[in-house]
TrEMBL record:
Lineage: Bacteria, Pseudomonadati, Thermodesulfobacteriota, Desulfobacteria, Desulfobacterales
Species assigned in the record: Desulfobacter hydrogenophilus
Gene3D superfamilies in the record: 2.60.40.2750, 2.70.98.70, Chondroitin AC/alginate lyase (1.50.10.100)
Protein name: Heparinase II N-terminal domain-containing protein
Domain of life: Bacteria
Length: 864
């Protein structure tokens, strides 16, 4: 027993070492959990006992109970297990992972695979690979390739190395997912005549043993639970993969129950919550690639249940939504969106070269994905080493439907209306001259950067125009001053600041500097921190509870934003969205607090706002974006600032300079029109000779001050310092990133508690010489206000929903009227149209749309 303890402690040391240096509070809890595991202080569990090592792989019940407020949630895989009577029937025989012994709906049979391998281009690639089979014993991808070559050729010389690697299987510490590959190797060599029955039994025992350990590690808290910054679901996938590949092994049914139960009760629901969007981190997504792989295993290994149909029918079709999200991450210049705001690796496309996404496209017949991959210069049929596995997934029928021009059409999609709240609007799809507008207003799930950017927007059009400021890797990631004071804060986003004296946020790490007290720093007017996040929840129900109920030991509430309305016209002429980000700020319902780790002292913030909503209407034909904000602070002296970040320097065309703080870097104007042409960027537009240009006109507040900040040495200026880091590397790195070199702050000239911000943003290029003519329209009772531009009028409720009579006048030429913020489903009498008086019912999202050729006076009267 002593020997077992020593071995286990050494193994677990890997876990703790892996987490050393993490600054995130949730991750610190996992360090504490690791220490408890090492110390052997966790009491044994009556539900999980598979070996003498159990004492070191037990669920940390006390740790999880700390994060509760009295409600009970599952903390073991056994508690989340699927009842045995609900288990689907397994495919008989092997291979059954990705390929079956007989024909099936979503893939090839073993005979079909071998027949396809004799056809081109696959036959040529197999011949090349078999001349010198890959042989790198420590590389999982190499072993997978060997196993595939064996499946295709039956060459027994390939098998010994695979057996050796299976017998060396162990948990892939701190993220999991290693056993997913091991199970595949075992399945593909299962029928090898060179494998003895004893070897086959030993390999099965090894897989079961490791799977049980993976379950215990996941329960211990080391896995980061449902949503992870490393890309879930590594550990549960290991458990399920083992259950799917094992036949009559004593642990097989239990592992299937645990894996399938956890996925259906938690993981699928969590992904459905976000509509398939991945609001986490970019290069941290490698383990996330396991998700389509384990689902493909499930589909191939099970009869009588089509898991793809189950996800589509019962879980909001989130899996195909995820495929669309991964495609939508890619801009027309073939770089990655930075809306997640973490790793800053624009060329690192997470969808490129990832073969298992073809399984989703095949399952749902998604021909757009084939066209998209060809646009990325990827071969759907396979290619060099590492891509041969696509021989299993390619569908000639789907590929044949991938029509030319399919990627140049408008694309508008909202992911996770009740979850992540991520919207993307494209006027020309992925065409090089297309516009991409992004908006985010949703729950706190997990973004590696901890970026506080609810109700933020981003714009790409012939280059990155409205961008995310700062960068995660500038200075010790979030541990340093760049991350703590700027990049993770709202000041780096395109959202709203409300400056409350004395407000604080948690410091990302010991290197933050400028501490107000140990662990806390000044909040630059932005949103509250949310420590910890969804990663600390083992079950999805616990996550939902923490959207509305605060943890007793960690200051955090996951409810940070809500999509109030979303509507797109059938003809794509407009898209309307409205988001409420009040909960993202310190507010009367919840304000962030912090408890010192050593002192035990508790610091508490005070509420500063009780309202911040943002509504946007994108008018696709004219490429105009109308933005309307409502902000109410609890003290009129607290300054509000509307933010927008740029790479190029914004010019103030018709405003008067009223103050210069730092010549050439910080100055203020009494209003004006902003013009910014793409520039000073590393990421070139699709056509560098034809970059994009942005115009911004502020119509409300009527009296405003525009503060412009930026340029060399002032890219991330806040509180008297440029927050790009103090090291020479950090100072030079900022010039090599498109991380926002300038920003504007639009503030009311007259302090008030309640303010409206009304902006017209026109998206053009160097051929666009000036801002289009724009007019502000207000109703007679001042309940509604809006913008008339390009033949379209958009009206908003000043304070929110309007349910009484509205009357307004429009000038000549205004034809299309879009009225929002009306009571949904209410029938209105619309007077003043060319047809006289019409009866129109407001949509489910509270909008009316009709045509009037001005000049005219319009009167909207709700029927009581």
């Amino acid at each position: 027993m002593k020997v077992l303890i020593k071995v286990t402690v050494a193994a677990l040391a890997i876990i703790v070492t892996t987490f050393a240096g993490f600054g995130h509070t949730g991750e610190m809890l996992h360090q504490e959990a690791g220490a408890k595991l090492l110390a052997g202080s966790v009491p044994p569990s009556s539900t999980l006992r598979a070996s003498g090592e159990d004492a070191f792989f037990q669920p940390l019940g006390p740790r999880r109970n700390k994060l509760r407020t009295g409600n009970a949630y599952g903390i073991t895989m056994a508690e989340e297990a699927l009842p045995v009577e609900q288990l689907p029937r397994m495919v008989n025989g092997h291979p059954r992972l990705l390929v079956r012994p007989s024909e099936w709906k979503h893939g090839l049979s073993f005979a079909q695979l071998r027949a396809r391998a004799r056809q081109e281009p696959w036959a040529r690639q197999v011949a090349i690979d078999m001349k010198k089979p890959p042989d790198h014993p420590s590389s999982s991808s190499v072993i997978t390739h060997r196993a595939l070559l064996y499946l295709i050729t039956g060459d027994e010389t390939l098998v010994p190395r695979i057996v050796e690697r299976i017998m060396a299987a162990k948990p892939q510490y701190n993220v999991g997912g290693g056993l997913v590959q091991t199970a595949l190797w075992f399945d593909w060599i299962y029928n090898s005549p060179s494998v003895t029955e004893d070897q086959r039994r030993s390999m099965a025992d090894k897989i079961a043993e490791v799977a049980l350990k993976c379950a215990r590690i996941y329960e211990s808290g080391h896995a980061f639970d449902i949503w992870t910054h490393r890309g879930s679901p590594g550990w549960p996938s290991d458990v399920l993969a083992a259950g799917l590949v094992l036949d009559d092994h004593p642990e097989a049914v239990k592992l299937r129950r645990w894996g399938m139960g956890y996925f259906k009760r938690n993981y699928f629901r969590a992904w459905q919550h976000n509509g398939g969007s991945w609001m986490h981190g970019g290069s941290a997504y490698n383990i996330g690639m396991i998700m389509p792989q384990i689902i493909a295993y499930w589909a191939s290994a099970v009869e009588g249940e089509d898991i793809y149909e189950v996800i589509q029918r019962d879980y909001g079709n989130w899996l195909e939504g995820h495929l669309h999200y991964m495609m939508a991450e890619v801009f027309p210049d073939k770089t990655r969106s930075d809306a997640v705001a973490w790793d800053y690796n624009p060329p690192g496309l997470r969808i490129k070269g990832k073969s298992f996404y073809w399984t989703i496209a095949r399952a749902y017949g998604n021909s757009e994905f084939y066209a998209f991959q060809r646009w990325l210069k990827e071969d759907p049929m396979g290619g060099p080493y590492g891509r041969l596995i696509r021989i299993l997934f390619y569908s000639k029928a789907i590929d044949g439907r991938a029509a030319d021009g399919v990627l140049d059409k408008p694309f508008i999609k909202l992911w996770g209306r009740n979850g992540s709240g991520y919207l993307q609007m494209r006027n020309k799809g992925w065409a090089p001259d297309g516009t991409v507008i992004e908006f985010k207003c949703g729950d706190w799930v997990w973004t590696h950067s901890q970026a506080n950017h609810v109700n933020s927007f981003w714009i790409f059009s012939k280059g990155r125009l409205a961008v995310q400021g700062g960068s995660y890797g500038l200075d010790k990631c979030w541990h340093g001053g760049a991350g703590s004071h700027y990049f993770t804060q709202t000041i780096s986003s395109n959202s709203m600041l409300i400056f409350q004296p004395g407000e604080f946020n948690h410091a990302g790490g010991s290197g933050a500097g400028d501490l107000l007290a140990p662990g806390i720093i000044a909040n630059p007017g932005g949103q509250r921190m949310r420590w910890a996040c969804g990663q600390t929840c083992f079950t999805f129900d616990e996550y939902l509870r923490r959207k509305s109920e605060e943890s007793t030991v960690q200051a955090g509430l996951f409810e940070t934003g809500e999509i109030l309305a979303f509507e797109k016209a059938k003809d794509n002429s407009y898209t309307y969205v409205s988001g409420d980000a009040t909960m993202a700020y310190n507010n009367p319902r919840f304000s962030y607090w912090y408890k010192g780790k050593k002192s035990g002292r508790v610091w508490k913030n005070k509420p500063k706002i009780d309202l911040f909503t943002r509504s946007m209407v994108y008018l696709m034909e004219t490429n105009n974006l109308v933005m309307f904000d409502r902000v109410q602070s609890l003290d009129k002296s607290w300054k509000k600032s509307w933010l927008c970040h740029f790479q190029g320097k914004p010019e103030v065309l018709d405003g008067r300079l009223i103050k210069t703080e730092v010549p050439g870097h910080i100055d203020s104007f009494n209003g004006g029109t902003i013009q910014m042409t793409w520039g000073d960027g590393v990421l070139k537009p699709p056509n560098p000779d034809d970059p994009g240009r942005l115009f911004i006109r502020t119509l409300l507040p009527e009296e405003q001050i525009i503060r412009r900040v930026g340029g060399d040495g002032y890219e991330a200026w806040w509180n008297g310092k440029n927050r790009t880091g103090d090291s020479k590397k950090a100072k030079s790195l900022i010039k090599k990133l498109d991380a926002g070199r300038w920003r504007i702050e639009v503030s009311p000239a007259i302090p008030k508690k309640f303010d409206n911000f009304l902006h017209l943003i026109h998206i053009g290029d160097t051929k666009t010489a000036k801002m289009p003519t724009v007019g502000k329209i207000e109703s007679e009772n001042h309940r509604m206000v809006g913008v008339a531009v390009g033949g379209t009028l958009v009206m908003f409720g000043r304070s929110g929903m309007v349910d009484d009579e509205v009357s307004y006048s429009v000038p000549k030429g205004i034809i299309d009227h879009l009225i929002v913020d009306l009571k949904p489903g209410t029938r209105y009498s619309v007077a003043g149209t060319a047809q006289g008086e019409n009866k129109i019912t407001a949509s489910e999202e509270g909008t009316l749309r009709f045509a009037v050729n001005g000049p005219a006076t319009i009167k909207l009267t709700p029927e009581r």
